[in-house]
Amino acid sequence: MDTVILNLENVGITDDQFYSLCQVNPHWNLEINKQGELIIMPPIGGLSGKREADLISLLWLWNNDKKLGIVFSSSTIFCLQNGAKRSPDVAYIKLENWQKLTLPQQEKFPPICPDFVIELRSKTDSLKPLQEKMKEYLESGLQLGWLINPQKQEVEIYRPNQTTEIVFLPAILSGENILPEFTLNLPIYN
User: Fold this and answer.
1) Is 139 exposed, middle or buried (0-12, 13-18, 19+ CB in 10 A)?
2) For position 50, what pLDDT does the model report?
3) N or C: which end of the chain has fewer CB within 10 A?
4) Model-level pTM greater than 0.90?
């Protein structure tokens, strides 16, 4: 099944309504982009799920040692400043930023942009919407983002106020000053 995009212009949906919509439709991945369109994505396949789990695990292991922040899975939706409600494949928020949120904000869809995200393009994903999503994160405060594109054997690296850097696989990516001493060794994907 393909991604479905519904125009909600002049309809309006509150954060609480969107949260409720997600709760009663747990088998769908739902997001809202900055234009207010509801994006309905089918579940991912096994290979993409494995790759995503590998990425989350590696970041979690680093963070478990460093204890500098919080790691989130693709099931977490973040309410961005521009009105978008986005769910990156992997997300990380510095501990001091997470602790600024109230407990009710932490329990629902946190009103914060992650400091770091990874988006992993699956076989059914179009590239342009993922690139637009990365730009939404940057507009909302993202400090570092990786868009991993196995189809083109490359990674797009996003940083504030910089042009997107493209690195070809295989590659070793650095967490830079956002994730001190974190490196990710990415192979060529088959």
Assistant:
1) middle
2) 93
3) C
4) yes
Mean pLDDT, contiguous 10-residue spans, the chain (190 residues): 82 89 90 92 86 96 98 96 95 98 96 98 91 97 98 97 98 98 94
Query: What's the token pair of residue 159?
Result: 């940083």
Contact residues for 47 (Cβ-Cβ < 8 A; gap 6+): 123
Q: Give the torsion sign (CA, 27, 32, 36, 42).
A: negative
Backbone φ and ψ for 176, nearest 5 degrees, come out as 55, -145
pLDDT of residue 82: 92
Q: What is the pLDDT of residue 103?
A: 97
